[in-house]
């Protein structure tokens, strides 16, 4: 199996340094003190009232992470949106739209390209059908969403823990297998802010590799099927058993190796692996270079890859959240709504 990566060498070295308190981490540690001070001063400006959090007429749930590089927030946003929709609520989603080529605030539509609105917002809209707006300032995206969709009853923000201008009724903090890394703040470590956070910060979700984080354990796994561009499916078992074309697995996510490992766990043994930078726009990808391969990727990548390679297969990621999480989640929202229509412990699939 051949593995290719287009991640810059410095980025790879930094990610390795964030896993332990080695030489590079300690050399960068003085800069993390500067970062801590600046971040603390910024929080103080909001607490003192010098800067204000802008009120919104509907509750806001912020899904984010305190560790840089992504921790699997978008699948959780999708699960929360679908859960609320099944309880009869009109849900809207806001996001910054990382990786998009256009500035300003705009709506995500079926016709919009992922390059214009961002791959994650495009995927959220595709999976949930909810109205999604993107903007550099999420508070502006929220106002635009409410103006366009006045029946919206609740907003879910994809990321935004550190966007203090955005109000929030509940925060859901997501961790992956890295946990807190080496525990240092940027740039000596992966943390965007000190942990633990302030009291009553919200609900914590993690993969169970770091029980000291508390909260609730989620399980991430790939579906047993892949999606074609037309929405039809093909069993992964058929992909694994087929000898027609060699498989090239590619991923432009924060941790491509996690996707590759889950593919192998499903019995798919790629001939070649291609790890690309997170939010890679695929504009430089030459489809003819991979003509002899069956391409398989994540759903997030597929929204940008399918226009170039319509034969590529995308494997959905499934997040299994425990009933105890949904009970705690619904309990936090009950004071803003009439009793929700479905019993506690309901989970979406």
Structure at a glance:
With 349 residues, the protein is α/β, with parallel strands linked by helices. It is 31% helix and 19% strand. It has ten helices and 17 strands.
Keywords:
349 residues, alpha/beta, Rossmann fold, 2 domains, 5-stranded parallel sheet, 17 strands, 19% strand, globular, disordered C terminus
Structural class: alpha/beta
Major sheet size, sense and barrel closure = 8 strands, mixed
- Bin the strand percentage: 15-25%
Overall mean pLDDT: 90
Helix content: 25-40%
Beta-strand segment tally? 17
Unreliable spans are 342-349
**Total discrete domains:** 2
Structure, described:
With 349 residues, the protein is of the alpha/beta class. 40% of the residues are buried. It has 2 domains: 60-218 and 321-336, Rossmann fold (3-Layer(aba) Sandwich); 222-318. The model is unreliable at 342-349 (pLDDT under 50). It has helices at 9-17, 23-47, 73-86, 114-117, 119-128, 138-148, 236-241, 256-265, 299-305, 323-333, and strands spanning 2-5, 60-64, 91-95, 106-108, 132-134, 154-158, 170-174, 203-206, 216-217, 219-222, 225-227, 233-235, 247-251, 272-275, 294-298, 313-315, 317-320. α3 (73-86) runs parallel beside α5 (119-128). The longest helix is centred in the N-terminal third of the chain and has 25 residues, at 23-47.
């Amino acid at each position: 199996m051949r593995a290719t990566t287009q991640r810059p060498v410095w980025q790879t070295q930094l990610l390795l340094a964030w896993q332990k308190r080695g030489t590079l981490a300690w050399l960068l540690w003085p800069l993390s003190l500067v970062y801590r001070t600046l971040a603390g001063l910024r929080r103080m400006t909001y607490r003192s009232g010098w800067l204000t959090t802008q009120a919104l007429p509907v509750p806001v749930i912020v899904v984010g992470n305190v560790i840089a590089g992504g921790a699997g927030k978008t699948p959780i946003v999708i699960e929360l949106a679908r859960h609320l929709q099944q309880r009869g609520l009109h849900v809207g989603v806001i996001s910054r739209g990382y990786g998009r080529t256009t500035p300003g605030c705009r709506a995500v539509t079926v016709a919009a390209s992922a390059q214009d609105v961002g791959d994650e917002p495009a995927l959220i809209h595709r999976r949930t059908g909810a109205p999604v707006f993107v903007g550099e300032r999420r508070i502006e995206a929220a106002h635009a969403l409410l103006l366009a969709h006045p029946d919206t009853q609740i907003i879910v923000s994809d990321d935004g823990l550190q966007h203090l201008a955005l109000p929030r009724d509940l925060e859901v903090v997501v961790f992956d297998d890295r946990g807190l890394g080496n525990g240092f703040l940027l740039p000596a470590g992966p943390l965007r802010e000190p942990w633990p956070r302030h009291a009553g910060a919200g609900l914590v979700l993690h993969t169970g590799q770091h029980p000291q984080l508390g909260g609730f354990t989620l399980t991430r796994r790939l579906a047993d099927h892949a999606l074609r561009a037309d929405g039809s499916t093909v069993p992964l078992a058929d992909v694994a058993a087929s000898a027609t074309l060699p498989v090239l697995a590619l991923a432009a996510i924060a941790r491509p190796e996690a996707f590759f490992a889950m593919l192998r766990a499903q019995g798919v043994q790629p001939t070649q692996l291609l790890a690309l930078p997170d939010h890679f726009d695929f504009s430089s990808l030459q489809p003819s270079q991979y003509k002899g391969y069956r391409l398989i990727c994540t759903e997030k990548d597929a929204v940008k890859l399918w226009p170039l390679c319509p034969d590529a297969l995308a494997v959905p990621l499934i997040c299994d959240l425990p009933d105890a999480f949904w009970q705690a989640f619904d309990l936090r929202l009950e004071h803003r709504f009439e009793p929700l229509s479905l019993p506690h412990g309901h989970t979406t699939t």
